[in-house]
Amino acid sequence: MNFLAHIYLSGDDDLIKIGNFMADSIRGHSYEAYPTEIQKGILLHRSIDSFTDAHPMYRQSKHRLHQKYGHYSGVIMDIFYDHFLAKNWKDYSAEKLEDYAEKFYLLLKENHEILTVRVQGMIPYMIARNWLVSYASLSGLEMILFQMNHRTQNRASMHESMVELKQFYDDFEHEFTLFFEELRQHCAHKLQELNAL
Q1: How is the chain classified by DSSP, letter by letter?
Q2: Which residues of 134-143 are buried (b: 16+ CB within 10 A; e: fewer)?
Q3: What is the distance between the alpha carbons of residues 32 and 44, in angstroms, rounded to a whole number?
Q4: 80 and 174 in contact (C-beta within 8 Å)?
Q5: Cα separation of 13 and 5, whole Å?
Q6: Tens digits of per-residue pLDDT, 126-178?
Q7: pTM of the model
């Protein structure tokens, strides 16, 4: 799962959203230095990643990309799945995606000092190119894949995966839909568990 899904799966708590969003840049037990709600977001993120990596539907999707993109097939698949969440956003939220994204960008600006240096450096690009909304269209998705490819110094030509996305579009979307429903249930239980601590 990429940025949009991680934020969405955090529920309504702003600090859990922030923790989940920036969790990839926090290693080991260093998360314990953050406020409790941020910690919950980081732990939720890690639980999402573990659930996703082990899920047969996600693995089936990723398998189509593995031979060509190797290690980066997971990165690409996370972005593809965010595309299907954004494209079908009205099925998951009563709030317009544009409004949801704008509120989250504002949240990041208001809590800039909490964010890791790595995330602080990424935010201006994310907001300027409106990544969360861009996921919804194929042209926006291709732009994001180009940027990801640039960030990884063209190690896997990730933008070329648009070919596979278009070729297997219905299969990917079907797998996402089944997988995401299970992931939503998993996250609801995980949040209950974290809030009970």
Answers
A1: --HHHHHHTTTT-HHHHHHHHHGGG--GGGGGGS-HHHHHHHHHHHHHHHHHHH-HHHHHHHHHHHHHHGGGHHHHHHHHHHHHHHHTGGGT-SS-HHHHHHHHHHHHHHTGGGS-HHHHHHHHHHHHTTHHHHTTSHHHHHHHHHHHHHHTTTSS-GGGGHHHHHHTHHHHHHHHHHHHHHHHHHHHHHHHHHHT-
A2: bbbeeebbee
A3: 14
A4: no
A5: 15
A6: 999 999 999 999 999 999 998 888 877 777 788 999 999 999 999 999 999 99
A7: 0.95
